[in-house]
Amino acid sequence: MSKQQAIQALEHALGRENVITKHEDLVCYSFDATPDMPNPLPDVVVTPTCTEDVVKVVNIAREYKTPIYPRGSGTNLSGGTIPLHGGIVLSTLKMNKILEVDADNLAAVVQPGVIIQDLNNAVAPHGLIYPPDPGTVATATMGGSVSECSGGLRGLKYGVTKHYVMGLKVVLADGQVARFGGKTVKNVTAYDLVKLFTGAEGTLGIITEITVKLIPAPEARASMLATFDRLEDAGNAIKGIIANKVIPATLEIMDQATIRTVENFAQVGLPTDVRAILLIEVDGIPEVVEKEAEKVVNVVKENNGKIKKAKDDKERESLWAARRAALPALAQLKPTTVLEDATVPRSKITEMLVAIEKIAAKYDLNIGTFGHAGDGNLHPTILTDARDKEEMERVHKAVDEIFKKALELGGTLSGEHGIGMAKSHFLSWELGQSGMDVVRKIKKALDPEGILNPGKMVSN
Amino acid sequence: MSYLKHYPEIENEIIKCMKCGNCQAVCPLYKETKFEGSVARGKVKLAEAVLKGKLEYTEDLAKIFETCLTCKACSANCPCGVQPDKIVLAARAKLVKERGLPLIKDLIFKGLSKPSLFKTGMAIGSKTQGLFLKPTEKGMSPRYPVSGLQLRRVLPKLADRSFLSTAAEENKVDNPKKKVAFFTGCTTNFLYPQVGEALLKVMQRNNVEVVVPKDQHCCGVPVLLHGDVNTAAQMAKSHVDIFSKLDVDAIITVCGTCGESFSKHYPELLKDDAEYSAKANKLAEKTYDFAQFLVDILPIDRDVLKPVNKTVTYHVPCHIGRGMNAHQQQIELIKSIPGIKYIPLKQPDRCCGGAGSFSLTHYDLSYRVLKHKLADVKSTGADLLITGCGSCRMQLTDGIAQENLSQEVIHTVELLAKAY
Ligand SMILES: Cc1cc2nc3c(=O)[nH]c(=O)nc-3n(C[C@H](O)[C@H](O)[C@H](O)COP(=O)(O)OP(=O)(O)OC[C@H]3O[C@@H](n4cnc5c(N)ncnc54)[C@H](O)[C@@H]3O)c2cc1C
Ligand code: SF4
Ligand code: SF4
Questions:
Q1: Domain at B305-418: CATH code
Q2: Whole-number pLDDT of residue B148
């Protein structure tokens, strides 16, 4: 049985308008946002419009023993959507309906191709928000972000994607459709299968419907920018804020390399001689916000920092402009941007930052670090040029060391970007043999023939 | 060397792209098609494959690069400062070089590049258009399916007499504050001569002397957009010759694309020719959209403006906004007219989908993009839809006719002229 027959079967099942086979078009699905990856072409791209379509695709894939790579917007940073062994890329972008906004139950039901921001726009009139906000809110899909369990800037107070997924409809590798969870706040029926499929990176099933939790939008917020001459002071301030029982919605850090690059690029008025900047935002009920902001100001001052509080939306916007410019500014410096997300317990942030600076010096690399300090999730960003083979070798060594250090400090390989292809060879460092066994057994049980996103996370 | 003539030069632009996908959030075509090849990221990947010699000319590849509005929404939203519209132009030029232009386009462009031929063609067109186009209330509709023209499309009627054939070459004033040359562009010359007349009136009331060189012709961008770099370069040279001879303070345009041709494209097209390059750069420095000239350079006396009692909204043409950065000045002019009630669109700078001939070659897709704009316009309840580009005006007028909306579409300078 040939590829041609499989493609014909797909065209027959989904209609020709939902099957892409031209060589040039396939090139556009050979990559995602991950740098330094191979770019193999898929044999075909399909754009199903409903769960039944997805079932048909899975059945055809089984019949022809062809892999399927689920794909949302292709913005992941771990090579999760790369069609490593050829086969079918299944794009969810035509399944982009918001099926229900249920304000009474603080829930919404969406198809996987809905863009996160579009969901937020739809719930805003009800005074609600869907908090997970990765840097790609305006592009990433719900299916992709659930499958990566994406985080974002508000993780410290509001948690990450998995804390908002209440129910899933999944097409399994054998073509069956399963439903887990629902709109109830409480649900302890059987294993927590919703969580199992959340963050599964498309390796266990294809998500075709998602029920998420919504929360009331905070009434007020206060934004502050603190600068420190010593990394230790910044680290102590982070600890001190939490020790004072303030949980900011946002607690972001930028190191000196990042600050200098941002200032150079965007001229937003950052002091380039400081070692670290914290961007802090507290939100909630106005009286509480005011009290919490006061506490933050005190903690920063106690730790030798200088702090500025935004007086109005315009000033808030200018504080945020600095943080938002971090990645763009770094990215403009060199052609290739390797963005990692090693994560450590909050109390180890300073140690991790110092270690990254040392690694940068050791391998003579340009690394800017920024990230979600409040939840220990750092983004060491290596600026390089993929065409420079010698430098890329040093980059790989530096990445190895960054991960080793994060694990040594009791952290994890990935706080939010996922394992995919890019980090699968590090997996055993964190999980050990026994942990790897469990992962393999789960994969084997749910996808015995290995047709779902092969080569990602674990290989069978 | 220019990336338009020597494709490898575009590498520096290509490698800047980190494939983040941010362009997906703003690309009007991607929003309709959801196809990765519609958006900048996919095109950059393809351009990269061409650069590496992994892809060569095929009709399918050409089609992908044709499917771009060059609206620059992606550039404006790109964290890495990539200008995908440049990459698209470079790729189109490269593909035309590899394969040659399709015959029909070749004929049209040869005509465009020979001003006299083009003008005769258009003059004959204005007399004979009734044979092919039937007048409707709002303009003309094709009588037969003419190549690529959709039957339901409403096109503006060609002017009985072109602007250049009626306007005086010298438009002197008593105590000139400045002297400028007016580059009319095709839409003003052949379709909307009233825009040229409005410009002359406004300049005259502001004591600005205007020269309208009679031998000017199409700016050449339509040709460039289809990858015919050689013809475009000839047209650029011809305009550099015509306008360099004039002793003027500024070159004024009433269309973003025309403005950009002087301020950006000519210097790029003539980069490799030392003599022309220097002249082109000089012209580029003094090219302004009429609104920039009136607000930043002159500036006009706003106290003399008479009231115009209208509710208006404004569509920012891509090449007036992201191209020339002249939209703020246009809006300022609109708002400075007494009696005007200005209601902004929700997404004023979203592309209307026109993109010159894109609306002819890709009517359905173009119309889907346009529909968002029409809904936005409708919700303002404005009487007048103001815009600063003839090509957008054609597109918007067609949409308004199709959807039976009530707005009249006019150019910003026409609105301003009403206030004198
Ligand atoms: C500039 C930039 C900033 C970023 N910032 C953040 C950030 O702050 N926080 C963060 O967590 N991430 C961030 N990311 C990573 C990325 O945006 C997120 O992982 C995003 O949620 C991926 O969504 P997507 O739709 O692009 O998914 P894709 O990349 O298309 O897919 C991601 C994974 O999910 C699988 N998948 C997709 N849809 C389905 C489905 N329906 N069923 C099963 N599997 C599926 C794919 O196979 C793949 O393994 C950033 C990326 C970039 C480029
Ligand atoms: S063109 Fe810019 S926005 Fe688009 S993928 Fe490339 S870097 Fe990102
Ligand atoms: S120029 Fe416009 S149409 Fe072309 S890729 Fe960029 S955003 Fe899309």
A1: 3.40.50.11810
A2: 45
Shortest CB distance from A332 goes to which of B19, B60, B80?
A: B80
ipTM of the complex: 0.94
- The strand pair at A165-172 and A205-213 is best described as antiparallel
**Contact residues on chain A for B58, CB-CB shorter than 8 A:** 23-24
Max distance between CA atoms of chain A, in angstroms, equals 72
Domain hosting residue A128, numbered range? 98-216
Over residues B352-362, the pLDDT tens digits come to: 999 988 988 89
Paired with A412 in beta bridges are A343
B17 lines ligand 2 (CB under 6 A): yes
- The CATH architecture one would assign to domain B8-99 is Orthogonal Bundle (1.10)
Residue B143 binned pLDDT confidence (cut-offs 50, 70, 90): very low
- Whether domain B163-297 has CATH 1.10.760.10: no
Chain B residues 52-111 within an 8 A CB cutoff of chain A: 55, 58, 60-61, 64, 79-81
Q: Tell me if B217 sits within 8 A of B115, measured CB to CB.
A: yes
Handedness of CA B290, B295, B296, B301 (dihedral sign): positive
Task: Provide mean pLDDT across the span A410-426.
Answer: 95
Residue B73 CA: nearest ligand 3 atom is: 7
Q: Is A416 close to ligand 1, i.e. is its CB under 6 Å away?
A: yes
For the residues of A281-330, what is the DSSP string, one character each? Answer: EEEESHHHHHHHHHHHHHHHHHTT-EEEE--SHHHHHHHHHHHHHHHHHH
Residue nearest to ligand 2 atom 2, measured at CA:
B78
Count of other CB atoms within 10 angstroms of residue B215: 12
Size of interface A-B (CB pairs under 8 A): 82
Q: Which residues contact B307 (CB under 8 A, 6 or more apart)?
A: B337, B338, B339, B419
Smallest CA-to-CA distance from A300 within A375, A227, A221, A374 is with A227
8 Å CB contact of B25 and A327: no
| Token couple for A186 | 């409480």
